[in-house]
Amino acid sequence: MAIRPERIAVAPDPAGTGRLRAVTYLGARTEYHLDLAGEAIVAVSPTPLPDDPRRRLAAGDPVRITWIPDAARVIPAAESPAR
C-alpha cells in the first residue's frame, strides 16, 4: 500500500498507535517523521497555526495517523523473474 505524505493526517493522541520521531518546520509546510509499529512514515501538511495542538508536538509524543481511504493505493507484489 502507498499513500502520499500530504494525504496523511497527524493529530496528538495519548492513545495513538504512532510515535513522533521528529518535526521539521519548512516555512509553509511541516514534515512529521513518524514510527508506526516499527515502520518509518513521513507525513506533510501545511504548517499549523500557533493555536493548533499539532504545534506543540515533540519527539516521542504519541499520535493518531489517519487518511481518507481513497488516498491509499494498493501496489501489487512484483512477480519473481522466471529462471
TrEMBL record:
Domain called Transport-associated OB type: residue spans: 1-75
Organism listed in the record: Methylobacterium ajmalii
Protein name from the UniProt record: TOBE domain-containing protein
InterPro entries, per database record: Mo/tungstate-bd_C_term_dom (IPR008995), Transp-assoc_OB_typ2 (IPR013611)
SUPFAM superfamilies, per database record: MOP-like
